[in-house]
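Q: I have two molecules that I believe assemble together. Could you output structure tokens for the complex as a whole instead of separate predictions?
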Amino acid sequence: MASNSSGGGSDRQRIAQQRLRIIAGHLRRPVDVDSTILAAECKAQDSKTDVSSEGKTVPRRRQEIMKWNGWGYSDTKFLFNKKGQAEFTGKRYKLSGMIMPALKDWLEDTFGTNLQHKSPATPILTSSAVQPPTLNEAFVEELKSTGIPFSHDAEDRVFRAHGHCLHEIFALREGKVGRVPDLVVWPNCHNDVVRIVELACKHNVCLIPYGGGTSVSSGLECPPEETRSIVSLDTSQMSRILWIDEKNLTAHMEAGIVGQDLERLLNESGYCTGHEPDSMEFSSLGGWVATRASGMKKNIYGNIEDLVIRVKMVTPQGVIEKSCLGPRMSTGPDIHHFIMGSEGTLGVVTEVTMKIRPMPEYQKYGSVVFPNFEQGVACLREVAKQRCAPASIRLMDNEQFKFGHALKPQVSSMFTSFLDGLKTFYITKFKGFDPNCLCVATLLFEGHREKVLQHEKQVYDIAAQFGGLAAGEDNGQRGYMLTFVIAYLRDLGMDYYVIGESFETSVPWDRVLDICRNVKLRIIQECKDKGVQFQPLASCRATQTYDSGACVYFYFAFNYRGLSDPVHVFEEVEHAAREEILANGGSLSHHHGVGKLRKEWMREAVSNVGMGMLKSVKDYVDPNNIFGNRNLL
Amino acid sequence: MASNSSGGGSDRQRIAQQRLRIIAGHLRRPVDVDSTILAAECKAQDSKTDVSSEGKTVPRRRQEIMKWNGWGYSDTKFLFNKKGQAEFTGKRYKLSGMIMPALKDWLEDTFGTNLQHKSPATPILTSSAVQPPTLNEAFVEELKSTGIPFSHDAEDRVFRAHGHCLHEIFALREGKVGRVPDLVVWPNCHNDVVRIVELACKHNVCLIPYGGGTSVSSGLECPPEETRSIVSLDTSQMSRILWIDEKNLTAHMEAGIVGQDLERLLNESGYCTGHEPDSMEFSSLGGWVATRASGMKKNIYGNIEDLVIRVKMVTPQGVIEKSCLGPRMSTGPDIHHFIMGSEGTLGVVTEVTMKIRPMPEYQKYGSVVFPNFEQGVACLREVAKQRCAPASIRLMDNEQFKFGHALKPQVSSMFTSFLDGLKTFYITKFKGFDPNCLCVATLLFEGHREKVLQHEKQVYDIAAQFGGLAAGEDNGQRGYMLTFVIAYLRDLGMDYYVIGESFETSVPWDRVLDICRNVKLRIIQECKDKGVQFQPLASCRATQTYDSGACVYFYFAFNYRGLSDPVHVFEEVEHAAREEILANGGSLSHHHGVGKLRKEWMREAVSNVGMGMLKSVKDYVDPNNIFGNRNLL
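A: Yes, here they are, computed for all two components at once.
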């Protein structure tokens, strides 16, 4: 590519050598002397590596540390202790080991639960509940010769047969197991994945990529009609940071790395991606790319489409990857956007170059109490308009405010609870806030201390214009801390006849209030019509702000005692809620994705021509539907 | 979609009516009482509407106000007056009517030009140079019955047969005309476009959408091998703002609106998009979407992909449009990104909903002189790292600094030029800056006055860390003002045997210096090897900053006297420059796009699978290649 320099001259030679060095440097993997992390060679025969030696959260046999029929770690759950108090077991979380004195009453008041009426889960998976695997012998034979670890153990297969939709967990708790993968395979690196995909194409085996397993769109469900052997391609062992580029503030990772490991490892070098989805303990980089994930602090760090510099994906047609690491390009339609959102239907994302940032110098939480939800939304809208949103700003409705109170741990100090009471008195009696209307926004600021304090002032000043009252850092911090334990609460509910789900949307600003009110009303009405005996919980929060709208997150839960087919009732209400969202101008999803759960609305969302485009890409990339999770289309 | 509410009750009726009103409101076009602009009905038989009555810049017969063989307005050009001084004619620009005393010498020193040696353009297009149109009679007959205005006038056809690549303008100046459209059609609205596309599909006519005509990627060139009738679909008369939504800060426009009209019309309501590509006087919204345009102030307003809320495009398969106006979604791969960058190969963009912002309260220009380019780049990199870039920050190299001086208008005041001289003395003699090394960054800040001043201080403080010296607002302002007149300069050059082009790339931070140095060296070497008799101008500037890299813009020009085939030499050097860019880690394009000029590198840019995806979409959307400009693939 360099031109032939005619003539001699030491000057020209020097320049030519310099340029050759530069070009060669460009072709080399940019391992810098300052890079602290160097990847070990990928060994296909890698024996069982344990968590500590690799700094990895997720072992191959996930069921060793995670629940097979519920959320999260096995050692962590909500339960009622011998005294009848709600307790959060384990040692992993700030809340672990604490009592929540108000939770029992809240459950009883909100759902009409009765601790005497239990609906416990099937504790152990019985192997007989699992169909024997349908193995494609030719595929397995060739797989053996690659040395890539695999299993057709019932427990391994069941673990990867589902995400965390209500109906999936409900079924598992009943010990019911539907179509599951026939085989689980654990590639260690990109080349392993290439080999697996080649074999799958050769032997017509259905591949379902499995990252964190946190899908709430039925994305991981095995299509019951699938007659071919289904192989779950588990990316968790393919999780190294391959390089960190401090000059360009980028890092290159294998796509199986999960959020908590990625941040922890980058933090060791003083960096972060800042991508913190609520699922980050378990969800993977590849999964974020495949589902267009959004993180709590997107106001600073961006959503996944803002973070990604380059993606590598293995498809039946070969590997897709741009040639350039440039920050922004005009080279036809952006193929990254053919990959992002493909939800496992086109291939396996194996490696990603992402932006990184220096860790923030300073973090400060905050909270604001508003007299009502309308004022809170108006405040969020103004904050968005002035483009001064903190790293995170979330506005919960009154129901969630009360729910948050129910999760307050028992405090050791009489003084602290006295202060709490004082605060409540101040807000309700002194300032005249109605405890049945008020709502709370939680805030997180990050950055240089001076700028944070300035920023904080600006936001609180705006809040005051909308009747907002600063309510302290600890309320804010607790709000965010609860983020990671909320998911465990559903399992507690399900022990007492309460089922529920979260769902989300994005919507223009002028529709936010309508959507919040109308969807909640719709849920309540639908439950009533379908014979749900106790009023459901229907709650929402505005969880992200944008220039032209917001992300709204709903919780929906009800006591199903007396219903013969509670999951069916749940599904109908959930369906009606989504119809209501769409009718009110909300999107099909802000970040959870479509999966199989929301396929029926895809055509309406993207138009016939859009569907045709997506299908044309699928038909080209994967004509035999090797990546047969049947999401999206 | 709303559930059947069983039972009566005035409360329920009231709620139901409320919800119905809301849903109906969602379906209505959101014309608010506060919206100041309401679109008139689209009349297919609309007679010639002139510029002033519609607020439109671009008349149907563009040649009435624009050059047929050069850049921009007919009444504006650089020339040498009777005194041999360079003058900028007309009244449209700040620089209009001014003398540039230093320009003549700069041209002579830089290119070895001689005002005695002229290479003037062919002043008038001779109709005989234009082949008679190949009309598809059946198509024309049906077109007539639609009432949509059209022409097969030679001047109209030639005008739309090209963009502004050097080889295109050079040929026109020689009076040479290649393949041109056979017909020009001017739809007035989306429905007109639907009709035209239907007819084109029915009669197998090639459609080439034509927006601003400012393509520099050979995107508008008619493929010479095209045997079907070529119809240029000129969007300029389809240019209304249909509504402004002040609640959501969005606006909905017809895609033929050009940048200067869009901003001017929005300004009347106190808003702006803030999208200001250098071509904004003439380039259109539809063109920006089709080519993934970038604007000068993207640091505040974003690039086109950040600005677009919803796009509507007419394709042979039908109309593609999302159903929702939500700010950010996860509904599979983002179909907007199948449209953006499609460069006229899939359909015609007819309407776009974009974000708008309140006009900034305050604007302040600035400039910084650096001792050398390396320090300047390091400063830009630090500004990007601290995420405190102004609305615009551009760093030009020493060659462009000198070029900028050559364009200084004669000042009326002795005092002002004395001040200038004083400034030069201070910078060079007092501070020790070498006038052959120093370079200048121009800055633009926008926003609340207080914030701007704070921001400004932060940036100048960083600049000082890299040896940068504040050099005043007027130098900054002049730098930006020159943006719109630079394009006229090429025509002057071409009057004196100088041909040239700009080209651009995006590149990671650690490659910026290498790419700047290597590409300039390569250009100089290639010119020498190919017998160019005078050293070429090879100059660059870093024109946008991002987290992980920058946009670099090159100027390349040379005196071609003595060359028998100057355009061929030019093309070879341009090609080599792009090879050098790619070898040094730069992208194929940051914002100019691919067109036909850079097709050969597409496969390398997006990989085989990426090409396959793009082709599969093309084959589905446009199986008969109705949109046959043959860009990209």
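A: One point stands out. The mean pLDDT of chain B is 91.
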